[in-house]
Structure formats: structure tokens, C-alpha cells
Amino acid sequence: MHRGARGRGYTLMLTPTSATGTFANDFQLSQAEFDRIRVLVREHTGIALSESKRQLVYGRLARRLRALKLGSFSDYILLLEKGEPAELEEFTNAVTTNLTSFFREPHHFEFLAQQMLPEALKRNTGLRRLRIWCCAASTGEEPYSIAMVLREAQESLKGWDTKLLATDLDSNVLAHGKRGVYGHDRFAGMSSNRVSRFFDEVRDGKDNKLSASGDLRSLVTFKQLNLMHEWPMKGPFDAIFCRNVIIYFDKDTQRALFERMAALQRPGDYLFLGHSESLYRVCDRYELIGRTIYRRLPD
Ligand SMILES: C[S@@+](CC[C@H](N)C(=O)[O-])C[C@H]1O[C@@H](n2cnc3c(N)ncnc32)[C@H](O)[C@@H]1O
């Protein structure tokens, strides 16, 4: 058995021992148990796990079994089926993948600064209102990147009612985003101007870290929201950042999701997807106008 470092601590790298597909470790994960867990993951998060995700699921959930001092995955499944909210939250937090970074896929932020904002300033002149929703915000790097672009345009946005909503299903990453404190390694590739303008040096335990400034934070509202549940927002959103999350959903889930997003946008509003994501054969309410940049079509 090897232990490999990953974002959330340690993953157990397991080797199947037999054709039954059980693993040489402290718990057995039978095919039936894995299949039931896949159904529960799908029900609670929309995430469709393929057969190849078995080791990943084992690694992430075995930690829950140990924490709860349970003897088997069957016991854990019974617990989940009782629907106790605290464990369901731990469960959904454990199965999400939260990889993100500041200015990930930088062309989207260039587009936002150079094309979308100047255009919105003209379109929304009467309202003087700008709304952006970042719907899979993870630990906050994505919404803070958007917020930096908005602050850099603050002269033109003076007097505007500008709001950025950052939501995610995972309560742990959301708490991280709200706190807005990051290790220096997270800022590789960001200009020193941006770092010094928008982040303050702070002491976090034994470490020196960087904290999003109060001014930057004041632009972003973090809220927990499961995309599979009802959305309390009314819109309209000038832009929705829905990046690197639909890859985890099946096509029907994606279809339903984008219909609901289209209902929160006006013709001409923008939708940003992740680099490997597309609306092709999923939703015809938007037209592709750039690299994974879509624009809402008229009704
Ligand atoms: C790979 S991260 C992408 C983060 C960021 N959007 C980016 O592109 O860098 C995917 C995020 O989607 C969130 N997520 C997964 N299923 C979700 C759901 N049903 N509702 C809301 N967020 C979800 C995860 O918690 C995770 O933080």
C-alpha cells in the first residue's frame, strides 16, 4: 500500500486483490456497495462517478468510516440513507474535487476586462447595475480573480451597484473562500502589482500567508448552494462563471442546469465554461462566441 499526497491530505493507493474487486485494506468495498454509493453521490451532488473512480471513492470515504469508527461501507451506507444532514454534508464535501487557481484560464478574465465590462457599461447605463454569479467557486480563487478585474475597472464602475455571488456545494471550500487566506504558492504567475494591491500579508499559525483585502472581499458574497437544488436568486446575471463543474455531471443534468441558467440571463448575457466543457448537443440557448465563452441568444 502506498500513500500519495493530494490536496485533501492522503489518498490510499489500493490494489484490487481479486476478481471480486475488493481491496487489500482495512475495509472491503464490494461492487454492490460502490454502486449504491454512486447512486447516493448522484442524488446528493449530481456528480456521475464512473467505474474508474472506485479507488478515489474508497480513499475519500474510508476516512469518514475511520472518523465515525464504523466497521464497513454497508454501515456507512445505512447511515447516509438515514439522511442525517451533518453526515450528508461530510459525504458531499468528501466526494467533490476542488482544484482551482487564481486567473485559471486567463483568457476569460481578459475577455471580462476588455469586452464584457465595456459592453455592460453601455448596455446597463440606465440601471447602473452589474451582477456576476460564480457557481462552483471552490476555495475562492475564481471569484476573487473576477473581483480583481472589477476593482481594476472601478473608475468606470463608480456609482454602479456591482455584486458578485460565489456559491459552491462544499462547505469546507466555501469557508476557505470566505476567509480569503492563501499560501504564497497560490500566487505563482500573478503580477506582483496585483498581489500587493489586493492582498495583505498575514500570520496564519506558523505561516506567513496572504489575505484578500477587505475591499476585495466586500465585492464577493459567498453562499452555499447545491446546483441540484432550488436557486433562490432571481437574476438577471450579466455573466455566469460555470467552469470545471459540469464535467462531473451527465448530459441530462447539464441540460436541466443550463435551461435554468438561461432563465436567469437576458439575451446578450455571458456564460463562461471550463476548458474541456461545451454546450454542444446540451443547450441551444447560447451561442459560442469565444474560447468556451457563450452568449445568451434571444428567446
Ligand atoms: C474542479 S472545481 C472548479 C472550481 C472553479 N470553478 C475553477 O474552475 O477553478 C469544481 C467545484 O464544483 C463544486 N461542485 C460539485 N458539485 C456541485 C454541485 N452540485 N453544486 C455546487 N457546486 C458543486 C465542487 O465542490 C468544486 O468546488
SSE arrangement:
Blueprint: E1 2-6, E2 9-13, H1 31-45, H2 54-67, H3 73-81, H4 85-95, H5 107-123, E3 129-134, H6 141-152, E4 161-168, H7 171-179, E5 181-183, H8 192-198, E6 199-204, E7 207-212, H9 214-217, E8 220-224, E9 239-242, H10 251-263, E10 270-273, E11 286-290, E12 293-296
Parallel strand pairs: 3-4, 3-9, 4-8, 9-10
Antiparallel strand pairs: 1-2, 5-7, 6-7, 10-12, 11-12
The structure holds S-adenosylmethionine (SAM).
Residues 45-47, 96-100, 104, 136, 138, 142, 168-170, 173, 226-228, 243-245, 248, 274 line the site of S-adenosylmethionine.
Task: Please tell me about this protein's structure.
- The protein is of the alpha/beta class and 299 residues long.
- The chain has two domains: 2-95, Chemotaxis Receptor Methyltransferase Cher, domain 1 (Orthogonal Bundle); 107-296, 3-Layer(aba) Sandwich (Rossmann fold), CATH 3.40.50.150.
- 37% of the residues lie in helices and 20% in strands.
- The protein has ten helices and twelve strands.
- The protein has a seven-stranded mixed β-sheet. Strands 5-7-6 form a three-stranded antiparallel β-sheet.
- Helix 5 crosses helix 6.
- The longest helix has 17 residues, at 107-123.
- Bound molecules: S-adenosylmethionine (SAM).
- S-adenosylmethionine is lined by residues 45-47, 96-100, 104, 136, 138, 142, 168-170, 173, 226-228, 243-245, 248, 274.
